[in-house]
Amino acid sequence: MQRALTFVCLWLSVWTYVQAGGAPPHRQPDSPQPAHPPAMASDALADMPLWAYGITTLPQPGDTAEPQGWGRQFNPAIDHDEQLKPALHVAGSSRTYAPIDLRDWANAVDWFPDEHSPMPDVVQHGSAALGERRRACAFCHRVNGGGRPENAPVAGLPVEYFLRQLEDFRSGRRHSTDPRKPNVPTMIAIAQAISPAEALAAAEYYAKQSGAPRIRIIESDRAPPIQLHGNLFVATSNERTELLTDRIAELLDGDHEQFNDNPHVGYMAYVPRGSIERGRVLAAAGSPAQSCTACHGADLRGLALGPPLAGRSPSYLVRQLYDFKTGARDGSQAPLMKPIASRLSTEQMTDIAAYIASLP
């Protein structure tokens, strides 16, 4: 049964890729963006895992977001000239950057260029069609593809899957349950502008990246107190004083003030005690067609249709499951995930994410 399902998944993946022409069609950057589906009423989102979205309040009807910034983003709270001084370093790198370099959408910093193959121009600088509004892929997804909790880890994704996600964004089929999440309209704008050659170059580059270091999972009854810094949670103390029940606390695994987008610094996640084993049982539950392994592989490291999941950000995993459940994520392969996600509670999503994130 499972072998038959795997064959069907492979056939569907190839068919979708062929239908898409192997890459998202090139659109001009001023193409009208597909409208975001209407925000759901708050009572319908009572079980929304706010922590996974990096928010503290439920979205409301009428909420929306604009694409994120472009160019060099000066911080008005810091002296202009100070932001231009090349004074930033990270351990093990001979390179030096200025603070403004870490806030330049069109020029991703690269501390360790010898640790990866040359970045395509679109990865380091963004799609040429966007002109002065270029946004580098690596600005958000990082040079190694590891991403951050507030966006996608793209390292190791199959080329076909990567291209299909661009097409889903371009066509308006992939959104977020939180319409205030600005990286969704950002991705739509990028997907509409990127050329087939740029899309393929980015897909092939990130397919070869490891996304290292792996996320560090700590199973615990309590976590340190945290507060939002943008869409990223930051610990305000090293003491584990906050109860963990049906949530995960995903944090930078190092000093936030000294991070400087160092690709050698990863993330850590405090997960509820017992959640990893509960998640393991849930991931394997049901018929072969309903288990995670059917499309994502026996080791959850991916198949032709399903992307690799093992070791991915638990915040990202829960966010995607919930987006499938609400219909915000309605891509070409969403019909395979929606029935599964619709039957999961947010507590079960949390357990599954804890288990998957703990895998090597």
Given helix and strand content, the structural type is mainly alpha
Q: Tell me the number of strands.
A: 7
Rg, Cα atoms, Å: 20 Å
Based on Cα principal axes, name the global outline: globular
Mean pLDDT across the residues is 89
Tell me the layout of helices and strands:
Layout: H1 2-19, H2 50-53, H3 121-124, H4 137-141, H5 159-170, H6 183-193, H7 196-207, E1 216-220, E2 222-223, E3 226-229, E4 232-235, E5 242-243, E6 249-252, E7 267-272, H8 275-284, H9 293-296, H10 314-326, H11 334-342, H12 346-358
Helix pairs in contact: 1-5, 5-6, 5-7, 8-12, 10-11, 10-12
Features:
360 residues, mainly alpha, Cytochrome Bc1 Complex, Chain D, domain 2, two-stranded antiparallel sheet, 12 helices, 7 strands, 8% strand, disordered N terminus
Describe the 3D structure.
A three-stranded mixed sheet has the order 1-7-6, covered by helices on one side. The chain has helices spanning 2-19, 50-53, 121-124, 137-141, 159-170, 183-193, 196-207, 275-284, 293-296, 314-326, 334-342, 346-358; strands at residues 216-220, 222-223, 226-229, 232-235, 242-243, 249-252, 267-272. Helices cover 32% and strands 8% of the residues. It has 360 residues and is mostly helical. Helix 5 crosses helix 6, helix 8 crosses helix 12 and helix 10 packs antiparallel against helix 12 (346-358). The protein has a single domain, classed as Cytochrome Bc1 Complex, Chain D, domain 2 (Orthogonal Bundle), CATH 1.10.760.10. The chain contains twelve helices and seven strands. A hairpin with a 2-residue loop joins strand 3 (226-229) and strand 4.
